[in-house]
Write the structure tokens for this entry.
Amino acid sequence: MSAELTLTTAMVLTGDSVYIAGAGDALENFAQFTRIVRYDSNCEPRWGRNDQDWRAVSLTYFGPQDEVFDDVLVLSEEGDVRYIGDHDPLLEKIPGAGVFSADAEGWGYLADIQQIGDCLYACGYKGQVYKRHGPNNWQHMDAGLLQDTRTTREQCIALSVINGPHESAIYAAGYQHAEWLPPKAFFFDGAQWREIELPPVADRIVNMYVESEARIWMCGSNGTLLLGNAEDGFKSLSSVDDNQLFTSVCKFQDKIYLASNMGLFVYDPADHGAGIQKVVTDLQPDLQDANIVDSYDKVLWSIGPKDIARFDGKRWERIDHPDNLPIR
């Protein structure tokens, strides 16, 4: 397959390297296909690819101290976990997760995977949270969160993102499947989960960025931008009151960058009064779209459904995806 792709999710490995998942434009919606592409400006060829016959929902880095791993991981909505590294292909399956998997138990799709401490955690629909205890050893760690498979749709909790500064401070957040998708957030202190109260203006939570144990950022629909922690609570920093959907958040050079359905935005914590502002680049044409924003050291990356760019603090560089038409 060499048709155009719509880029769906990504993770930055270094300032020169990024991994991106894409869906084929010529395929039907929700087709079981993902192309994982790697761009590395220090390699030749710069692009590599790996096709999977399932839909990827999340990518993360995995480098535990007690295993010989230094991998990029790809999670499918059905709970497949692909390890991409300098070794033979490795695939694991999170048992019970998914909808159409042979072992699916009725909880539904997964949405996110992250390394927290030395372990991997994954989360998803109906309060699913899993921890990897070793090779092919995924176990539930969602006591108090996991819902009955017969839970009505209006009562279902969908966890969109999981992250935290360490394994005794883990956050999982998303929404309830009620009429207006009210936000939900939970905190694990190393022993048990509890729900976190969020500001009344908050809406559905989509993503999270861990700046420090005290500063956890959450973003989501209707311009939601929250900062805080489980002990002190969260406050809203948003100056947006329309249908803007923030899909990704990260810190770069003391500012907070947000990818959204309306492009790339920036918030300066040192100048709250300025609000959340649209990023204007020196690209020609300007940045076309943004879905994921991520940073590594002195480089900021923006990955949209079609547009890929990076910023070194002084100038922007657009990177053409080989499967897609150049943006000119």
